[in-house]
Protein backbone atom coordinates (compact mmCIF):
# COMPACT_ATOMS: atom_id res chain seq x y z
CA UNK A 1 0.00 0.00 0.00
CA UNK A 2 2.83 2.42 0.86
CA UNK A 3 4.52 1.74 -2.45
CA UNK A 4 1.26 2.42 -4.29
CA UNK A 5 0.83 5.75 -2.47
CA UNK A 6 4.44 6.63 -3.14
CA UNK A 7 4.02 5.94 -6.86
CA UNK A 8 0.78 7.94 -7.02
CA UNK A 9 2.44 10.83 -5.17
CA UNK A 10 5.41 10.77 -7.56
CA UNK A 11 3.15 10.73 -10.64
CA UNK A 12 1.04 13.59 -9.25
CA UNK A 13 4.12 15.64 -8.36
CA UNK A 14 5.73 15.04 -11.77
CA UNK A 15 2.55 15.98 -13.58
CA UNK A 16 1.93 19.04 -11.44
CA UNK A 17 5.50 20.34 -11.59
CA UNK A 18 5.53 20.08 -15.39
CA UNK A 19 2.27 21.96 -15.85
CA UNK A 20 2.68 25.11 -17.89
CA UNK A 21 0.62 28.25 -17.66
CA UNK A 22 -1.51 28.77 -20.75
CA UNK A 23 -1.53 32.51 -21.41
CA UNK A 24 -4.69 34.21 -22.58
CA UNK A 25 -4.55 37.79 -23.82
CA UNK A 26 -5.53 39.25 -20.44
CA UNK A 27 -2.98 37.05 -18.62
CA UNK A 28 -0.25 38.16 -21.03
CA UNK A 29 -1.05 41.83 -20.51
CA UNK A 30 -0.98 41.39 -16.72
CA UNK A 31 2.30 39.48 -16.90
CA UNK A 32 3.98 42.22 -18.93
CA UNK A 33 2.64 45.03 -16.71
CA UNK A 34 3.61 43.18 -13.53
CA UNK A 35 7.21 42.85 -14.69
CA UNK A 36 8.77 46.15 -13.58
CA UNK A 37 11.76 45.96 -15.90
CA UNK A 38 12.43 45.89 -19.61
CA UNK A 39 11.26 42.52 -20.89
CA UNK A 40 12.26 40.52 -23.95
CA UNK A 41 9.47 38.18 -24.99
CA UNK A 42 10.46 35.36 -27.32
CA UNK A 43 7.63 33.68 -29.19
CA UNK A 44 8.95 30.31 -30.25
CA UNK A 45 8.06 26.70 -31.07
CA UNK A 46 9.68 23.36 -30.34
CA UNK A 47 10.04 22.57 -34.06
CA UNK A 48 11.89 25.81 -34.87
CA UNK A 49 15.71 25.51 -34.94
CA UNK A 50 16.16 29.30 -35.23
CA UNK A 51 14.03 29.80 -32.12
CA UNK A 52 16.21 27.43 -30.14
CA UNK A 53 19.37 29.12 -31.40
CA UNK A 54 18.04 32.54 -30.41
CA UNK A 55 17.03 31.34 -26.93
CA UNK A 56 20.44 29.75 -26.38
CA UNK A 57 22.14 32.97 -27.43
CA UNK A 58 20.03 34.99 -25.01
CA UNK A 59 20.82 32.53 -22.24
CA UNK A 60 24.53 32.65 -23.02
CA UNK A 61 24.30 36.41 -22.39
CA UNK A 62 22.01 36.19 -19.36
CA UNK A 63 24.58 37.80 -17.03
CA UNK A 64 24.74 40.89 -19.22
CA UNK A 65 20.94 41.05 -19.41
CA UNK A 66 20.67 40.68 -15.64
CA UNK A 67 23.13 43.56 -15.11
CA UNK A 68 20.92 45.74 -17.30
CA UNK A 69 17.81 44.52 -15.42
CA UNK A 70 16.35 42.99 -18.56
CA UNK A 71 14.21 39.91 -18.13
CA UNK A 72 13.39 37.27 -20.73
CA UNK A 73 10.11 35.38 -21.05
CA UNK A 74 9.56 32.48 -23.44
CA UNK A 75 6.11 31.93 -24.91
CA UNK A 76 5.64 28.77 -26.93
CA UNK A 77 3.04 28.57 -29.68
CA UNK A 78 3.16 24.76 -29.65
CA UNK A 79 -0.22 23.04 -29.65
CA UNK A 80 1.11 20.28 -27.40
CA UNK A 81 2.38 21.30 -24.00
CA UNK A 82 4.53 18.17 -23.91
CA UNK A 83 6.41 19.23 -27.06
CA UNK A 84 7.16 22.67 -25.63
CA UNK A 85 8.24 21.24 -22.29
CA UNK A 86 10.51 18.62 -23.86
CA UNK A 87 12.20 21.23 -26.09
CA UNK A 88 12.52 23.63 -23.15
CA UNK A 89 14.20 20.99 -21.01
CA UNK A 90 16.62 20.20 -23.85
CA UNK A 91 17.53 23.89 -24.11
CA UNK A 92 18.68 23.78 -20.48
CA UNK A 93 17.69 27.38 -19.72
CA UNK A 94 15.82 28.87 -16.79
CA UNK A 95 13.80 31.62 -18.44
CA UNK A 96 10.11 31.54 -17.47
CA UNK A 97 8.11 29.44 -19.94
CA UNK A 98 4.47 29.90 -20.94
CA UNK A 99 2.19 28.45 -23.61
CA UNK A 100 0.18 30.84 -25.78
CA UNK A 101 -3.52 30.15 -26.23
CA UNK A 102 -5.06 30.57 -29.68
CA UNK A 103 -6.70 33.69 -28.29
CA UNK A 104 -3.27 35.26 -27.59
CA UNK A 105 -1.76 34.05 -30.87
CA UNK A 106 -4.61 35.65 -32.81
CA UNK A 107 -4.58 38.84 -30.73
CA UNK A 108 -0.86 39.37 -31.38
CA UNK A 109 -1.20 38.12 -34.97
CA UNK A 110 1.63 35.61 -34.59
CA UNK A 111 2.02 33.75 -37.87
CA UNK A 112 5.66 32.68 -37.73
CA UNK A 113 8.42 32.20 -35.21
CA UNK A 114 10.75 33.29 -33.81
CA UNK A 115 9.41 36.71 -32.92
CA UNK A 116 11.12 38.97 -30.41
CA UNK A 117 9.07 41.66 -28.70
CA UNK A 118 10.59 44.26 -26.38
CA UNK A 119 8.41 45.75 -23.64
CA UNK A 120 9.42 48.68 -21.46
CA UNK A 121 9.06 48.73 -17.68
CA UNK A 122 5.55 50.21 -18.04
CA UNK A 123 4.37 47.29 -20.16
CA UNK A 124 4.36 49.17 -23.46
CA UNK A 125 5.68 47.45 -26.56
CA UNK A 126 8.89 49.17 -27.59
CA UNK A 127 9.79 47.02 -30.61
CA UNK A 128 8.86 43.76 -32.31
CA UNK A 129 10.73 41.83 -34.99
CA UNK A 130 10.16 38.49 -36.71
CA UNK A 131 12.95 36.11 -37.62
CA UNK A 132 16.16 35.03 -35.95
CA UNK A 133 18.12 37.82 -34.28
CA UNK A 134 21.69 37.68 -32.99
CA UNK A 135 22.37 39.02 -29.51
CA UNK A 136 23.93 42.13 -31.07
CA UNK A 137 20.74 42.75 -33.07
CA UNK A 138 18.63 42.28 -29.94
CA UNK A 139 20.79 44.81 -28.06
CA UNK A 140 20.26 47.25 -30.93
CA UNK A 141 16.49 46.71 -30.63
CA UNK A 142 16.75 47.54 -26.93
CA UNK A 143 18.60 50.81 -27.63
CA UNK A 144 16.47 52.08 -30.53
Describe the structure concisely:
This protein has 144 residues and is an alpha/beta fold.
Descriptive overview:
- The protein has one domain: Glutaredoxin, CATH 3.40.30.
- Mean pLDDT is 89; it is low at 3-17.
- It has helices spanning 2-17, 25-34, 49-60, 62-67, 81-91, 102-107, 135-143; strands at 21-23, 38-44, 70-76, 97-100, 115-119, 125-130.
- It has 144 residues and is α/β, with parallel strands linked by helices.
- CATH homologous superfamily label: Glutaredoxin
Provide mean pLDDT, rounded: 89
Radius of gyration: 16 Å
CATH level-two architecture: 3-Layer(aba) Sandwich
The proportion of residues forming helix, as a percent range, comes to 40-55%
| Main sheet strand line-up | 1-4-3-2-5-6
- Number-wise, the strands total 6
CATH topology label? Glutaredoxin
Strand proportion, as a percent range, falls in 15-25%
Biggest sheet layout: 6 strands, mixed
How large is the count of helical segments? 7
Shape: globular
Low-confidence stretches: 3-17
Determine and state the CATH class: Alpha Beta
Structural domain tally:
1
Structural class per helix/strand content?
alpha/beta
Helix/strand order, N-terminal first = HEHEHHEHEHEEH
Spatial separation of the terminal alpha carbons: 63 Å
Amino acid sequence: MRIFLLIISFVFYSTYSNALVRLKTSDFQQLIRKNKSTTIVVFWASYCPYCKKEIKELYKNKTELDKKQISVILISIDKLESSALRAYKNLNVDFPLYIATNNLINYLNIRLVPIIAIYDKNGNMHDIAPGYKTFTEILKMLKD
